[in-house]
Design goal:
By secondary structure, this protein is an alpha/beta fold. Helix content is 45%, strand content 15%. A 7-stranded mixed β-sheet has the order 3-2-1-4-5-7-6, sandwiched between helices. Strand 1, helix 4 and strand 2 form a beta-alpha-beta unit. The chain starts with a helix and ends with a strand. The structure holds S-adenosylmethionine.
Length: 302
């Protein structure tokens, strides 16, 4: 079972499912829109039938704030990519892209070269589900890499990565599934690859207090925080990809600093709640905040 496609794409499907649920909300109530997410989710018809409100209500019962947490992460990166593309960045490397369809849903300039990096089996399923013309988009290149065994540098260079071009890199919802060594070497390889041009690195990481002091990873008054922490880890392992790496803030920031980046932002859902959910009338109360994952934007030093 461990080599089956389900074991490899379980969590990618999980995130796509939350994007599908968010997309089902009315356009003036949702914070992201992913018209492709349903293609990747087993049981998408049933989820659509249930609609946004019921799905979010169910998610709230299981793990309050979980859906909003993932959607704030997606929106935060959407905004970063749109901002970067608007200011002329030339390449975008999506590390552990899974079923993320930012390349197609954000209306990015066609001059932006996009490299989607993930395990070959996940990429094959993704391509089999997308409309042919999107798979064949000239500006998107699929780069099959297993971070734990293969050289990202070689695969990206073979795929046409241009070291002289400015680049934005995202590692979204991946660091918890791979070893700390793999995360450090990925940051190092990308920093080396992009040293001749400006680069921006986004990384999300899970707070190590999830294991040592779970209450600190949720809003004040969050119900049964320790039990919820166990449920989250259990569900991920059950989907075939256990969380194996947890970090104190300074550890990830130090790896970025050592590789020539400075930290621009390190945020959680608490910071993004007012920015994204308040304007659409969906502000989460303190006791539903889910802060176990941090979202970091770092920029190369000039
Ligand atoms: C939780 S999913 C996130 C997907 C996507 N970034 C998103 O937010 O929708 C984690 C992704 O990391 C990828 N991944 C996990 N381990 C990997 C490895 N060793 N090498 C390459 N990709 C890996 C998985 O295939 C999956 O697509």
């Amino acid at each position: 079972m461990s080599n089956s496609i389900f074991a490899k794409d379980g969590t990618a499907q999980g995130v796509a499912k939350q994007r599908l649920i968010e997309t089902l909300a009315k356009s003036d109530k949702r914070i992201i829109n992913d018209p492709y997410a349903d293609r990747f989710v087993v049981g998408a018809s049933f989820i659509k039938l249930m609609g946004h409100t019921l799905n979010v209500w169910l998610a709230q019962k299981l793990v309050p704030g979980f859906h909003e947490h993932l959607m704030s992460r997606t929106r935060f990166i959407d905004d970063l990519i749109k901002r970067s593309a608007g200011s002329g960045i030339e390449q975008y490397v999506i590390l552990g892209a899974g079923y993320d369809c930012r390349a197609h849903r954000l209306e990015l300039p066609s001059s932006l070269r996009i490299f989607e990096v993930d395990q070959p089996e996940v990429q094959a399923r993704k391509r089999s589900k997308l409309p042919r013309q999107l798979c064949d988009s000239e500006n998107v290149t699929y780069v099959p890499v297993d971070f734990t065994h293969q050289s990202l540098t070689k695969q990206l260079m073979d795929a046409g990565f241009d070291q002289s071009k400015s680049t934005v890199i995202t590692l979204e919802g991946v660091s918890q599934y791979i070893t700390k060594e793999a995360v450090s070497s990925t940051i190092k390889e990308m920093a080396t690859l992009t040293q001749k041009a400006n680069s921006i690195f986004f990384i999300s990481y899970v707070d190590e207090r999830l294991n040592t002091n779970p209450e600190a990873c949720f809003g004040k008054g969050y119900p049964k925080a320790a039990k919820r922490a166990e449920i989250i880890k259990y569900l991920s392992a059950k989907a075939g990809e256990p969380w194996i790496s947890f970090y104190p803030a300074e550890e990830v920031e130090n790896v970025l600093l050592q590789n020539g980046y400075f930290i621009k932002e390190n945020l959680t859902l608490t910071d993004l709640n007012s920015q994204y959910f308040a304007p659409v009338g969906r502000t989460l109360p303190e006791n539903q905040l889910f802060n176990l994952e941090h979202f970091v934007i770092a920029q190369s030093q000039d």
